[in-house]
Amino acid sequence: MSYVVVLPSYNERENILELIETIIRSSKDSYVVVVDDNSPDETFKVVDEFKNNLESNLFKRLYLIKRQKKDGRGGAVWDGLKFSLTNIPDAQYFIEMDCDFSHNPSYIFTGIKLLEKGHNLVLGSRYPNGKIVNWPFSRRMISFFANILARILIDRNIHDFTNGFRFYDKDLVTYLLDQDMKYTGYINLSETISLSLKAGKSIGSFPIIFVNRKLGKSNTDFKELANSLVSIFKIAIDHRFK
Description:
Structural class: alpha/beta
CATH topology: Spore Coat Polysaccharide Biosynthesis Protein SpsA, Chain A
Radius of gyration: 17 Å
CATH superfamily: Spore Coat Polysaccharide Biosynthesis Protein SpsA, Chain A
Strand content: 15-25%
Helix content: 40-55%
Shape: globular
CATH class: Alpha Beta
């Protein structure tokens, strides 16, 4: 069963080539779509050169999309998923993950197995039984309380609304691309869970070890985190009353 891994990229050249190679060499059924937001460190150029040096069977399984400006992780993911749905017709499963090895690619097959069991969406979850390594205390607290808040406001059965390691079946991707999503930043992660729940989709999860990046610098700033906390209330209102 073929699957696509969408990698939203912005200033990720320290990590992304190793991750791409790990994914596309792990299975002949894998595809990778890199969505670059015009990174100033020329990530797109680095990946393009890497692609052109691949053997033909791997070359055809790596795609690159270059957006003209940084427009949020959520927007990049869904541009990549829309491209994948149109241009990789044999793909049945779709995965989003970070480019910095915070999400271990060895978990990919665990998520796919849960999709094969009938879930529409599978979350690689840090809570309640996963583990976070090398995160500063402030980030741990913000993430923990943001997820507590989302559980109270939206659904107590979901423990990790904000982790970007996700697995979708084709039906859910098609459905979500037809929805009017309001957010393009990290809060889109919570928005898509809300939309999936409202549509009665089956959501599964499995615990992961989330390791803070060893190379590069996080693109999430505290302003975006603060805006996300405000936005979760708006998502909850839509979820409950619309």
